[in-house]
Amino acid sequence: VAGVFDLSSFRNAIRANLDLARLRVRRLDEGVLVAPLRAASGLRFKDVIIAGAVEDAFPARAPIDPLLPDADVRRLQVRFPALEDRLSRRRASLREAEAAMSAARDRLTLSAFQFEAGGGRPRHASHLLVAAARRQDPA
Q1: pLDDT tens, 91-119?
Q2: How many CB atoms lie within 10 A of CB 25?
Q3: What is the DSSP letter of 39?
Q4: Cα–Cα nearest to 60, from 39, 40, 90
Q5: Which residues pair with 109 in a beta bridge?
Q6: What distance lies between CA 90 and its chain's CA centroid?
Q7: How far apart are CA 92 and CA 111, in angstroms?
Q8: Are 122 and 115 in contact (CB under 8 A)?
Q9: What is the pTM of this model?
Q10: DSSP H or E run through 130
């Protein structure tokens, strides 16, 4: 770091940056919030737009733990009930996705892409997107 500074000027610089980071141009309930799905839990928005609602991403697929197989995790859950296996992580991911969708007061927009970026492998719309579409039009 070039220049000379002391603790007081360092503290003032940090405070200015923190204040700037939380600067709001509008009211808290106006504008756009870009956040992970779990951030929508318990909140309500006029419109909710969820992009990339494809299988294994919405809800997110629970990864396989490379160190501890699920059978071992289930045995350990007797002593450590908070320890999550793939099924419990998948259920949590599903709850987060459903909470994000239910956060919409007026309009919910879900979008899905057909192929990965660069023309990669095909992707399929999430079962949650398909179910929401069928509620609007069974065909």
Answers
A1: 889 999 999 999 999 999 999 988 877 76
A2: 6
A3: G
A4: 90
A5: 49
A6: 13
A7: 22
A8: yes
A9: 0.67
A10: helix 127-136
